[in-house]
Design a protein that fits this description.
Helix content: 25-40%
Shape: globular
Largest sheet: 8 strands, mixed
Number of helices: 5
Number of strands: 10
Strand content: 25-35%
């Protein structure tokens, strides 16, 4: 039986941050071309795994249709996101909404079980959760959307590691917005 892959995919500044020092992510807003690429990747995802902070930010997609200025490709993403099961790892949340389940146990144990089950790939979002899974050697692919901006400080994409992780480049693509997509497999 093939195991599911665990994919860590986020926008990142050229100097390696997913958010600025105040949590700002305005520099990473996708244009239509990039959004449609994200939509396709989201269609291929079986379960989204979130930490509390990113889950709370993503709940916007539960009610995106209420935004009169939402574009068709954004509404498409909202539908995909709502239909995809989500597991939220949090010790502070009491409940989650929509197609989401709250998990309060050890993320590494839960993710290892999920990877062993049949189904579409898993996607992890949120630096803290991804960092803990990275340190346990559970991430199979890294998908970085590198924006042409230097933040200088902020929340890093990669944590400090006590060992090297060798990577194999699988794919690159440059979008009209000058965002560069890099897809690596952990070896």
């Amino acid at each position: 039986m093939l195991t599911r892959r665990l994919i860590y995919s986020m926008g990142v500044s050229l100097d390696g941050f997913i958010a600025g020092s105040e949590g700002e992510i305005d520099w990473s807003a996708p244009d239509e071309e990039l959004h449609r690429f994200h939509n396709q990747q989201a269609r291929e995802t079986g379960v989204h795994l979130y930490g509390r902070r990113l889950y709370e930010a993503m709940t916007y997609w539960e009610t995106a249709e209420q935004n009169a200025s939402a574009r068709a490709y954004e509404l498409e993403f909202a539908r995909i996101w709502r239909d995809t099961p989500k597991i939220v790892f949090s010790k502070s949340l009491a409940q989650v909404q929509g197609n989401a389940t709250l998990a309060t146990g050890d993320p590494a144990e839960e993710v290892a079980k999920l990877k062993g089950r049949a189904g579409k790939d898993l996607a992890v979002g949120g630096a803290a959760l991804a960092s803990s899974l990275m340190k346990e050697g559970l991430i199979d692919e890294y998908r970085l959307f590198v924006s042409p901006v230097l933040l200088g400080t902020g929340r890093p994409y990669f944590p400090a590691l006590d060992r090297r992780i060798e990577l194999q480049l699988l794919e690159t693509r440059t979008f009209a917005s000058r965002v560069v997509y890099l897809r690596y497999r952990a070896q």
